[in-house]
Description:
The chain is α+β, with helices and mostly antiparallel strands. It has helices at 45-49, 68-81, 115-122, and strands spanning 2-9, 21-26, 29-34, 37-40, 58-63, 87-95, 105-109, 134-139. Strand 2 (21-26) and strand 3 form a beta hairpin. The radius of gyration is 15 Å and the shape is globular.
Amino acid sequence: MSRVILLAADHPMPLYDPELRRISVSNGFTVEVPGFSVQGHEYYRDAVDSLGLEMKPFQYELNLDATDEDAEQLRTYLETNGTPGEQVELWNLWVGDDREAHVPHFRGRLADLDADTLDQLCNPPVRNDIPGQCRMTITI
């Protein structure tokens, strides 16, 4: 099973990779990993399509963490590339056999998107011993 976090919109959005890096410490090892970016939705595209979810047509993979910095990067990206009143979707999905069919749906305003919002997106609660999923509709 693999996780993918997506941005879905009604119109094409530009790819964005400021080549930011994060330092992560795990099991005593320090690792440099990619930071916030918006990439083409290619690798998991067939697996996501097979889920049969109703999604906006233009989909992009997001690399983000539940941090103030990533919330600011995402807000700036959406303010720059969207229009006021437009809605976009953020999805945290698990693709594979052992996934919950239900995807909780939340709604909010872009101005309210912060690290806590990203924590809710990136780390939804485990249900029935299956990793959680999430869908957020954000109004710009």
